[in-house]
Amino acid sequence: MEPSTVHTTAQTTGWSVRMLHYLDAAGLVRPPRSSGGYRLYGDRETAQLRRLRQLLVDHALRPADLQVALRLRGEPALRHAVDDWLGAATAGVSSPTLAEAQLDQESDHSTDPPDRISPPVTTDLSSSWLRFEQDKHSRALDSAGRFSSHATPSKETA
């Protein structure tokens, strides 16, 4: 298939032109550019857009959720800082030490999902809100991991 412009891709995929620009800026779908700087969407990018839409629908996510997950995957220090904060903010769950965080990072390469520590169930609204946010971010990270294993864009093709 011949690469298509952002307007044609918007018509064929159901995404708006504005959303395609946002997805590019967010780093979620990065189409190559023409010599004039125009985005060119080929088969790979069109397939990524379709999988992205399905991922968002299946897991009740927004593109911004995946953007956060992408940033957490690309910045290990940020990921560990967020993990530490979430762990410390949850009653009954201690924050991992630096050595434990490094062990977690080394074990992240396994194919099995890591065991998650669940805080005690409580009726405190502030704790339930925090648990909801933790679960949302965990789902986003898990979804981003599955998404990135299906689509591994190469900088060489851009």
Structure description:
With 158 residues, the chain is mostly helical. The protein has 2 domains: 6-58, Multidrug-efflux Transporter Regulator, Chain: A, Domain 2 (Orthogonal Bundle), CATH 1.10.1660.10; 66-149, no CATH class. It is built from 7 helices and no strands. The longest helix is centred in the C-terminal third of the chain and has 26 residues, at 125-150. The chain is elongated and about 50 Å long. 13% of the residues are buried.
Q: Determine the number of helices (DSSP H or I, runs of at least 4 residues).
A: 7
Please state the structural category: mainly alpha
Rough outline: elongated
Mean of pLDDT: 78
Strand content: under 5%
How would you characterize the largest beta sheet? none
Q: How many separate domains make up the residues?
A: 2
H/E topology pattern:
HHHHHHH
Q: Using DSSP, what is the number of strands?
A: 0
Brief descriptors of the model:
2 domains, elongated, 158 residues, 0% strand, Multidrug-efflux Transporter Regulator, Chain: A, Domain 2, disordered C terminus, mainly alpha
Write the layout of secondary structure elements.
Blueprint: H1 6-13, H2 17-26, H3 43-58, H4 63-74, H5 76-89, H6 98-107, H7 125-150
Helix pairs in contact: 4-5, 4-7
Summed up:
The chain is mainly alpha-helical and 158 residues long. It has helices at residues 6-13, 17-26, 43-58, 63-74, 76-89, 98-107, 125-150.
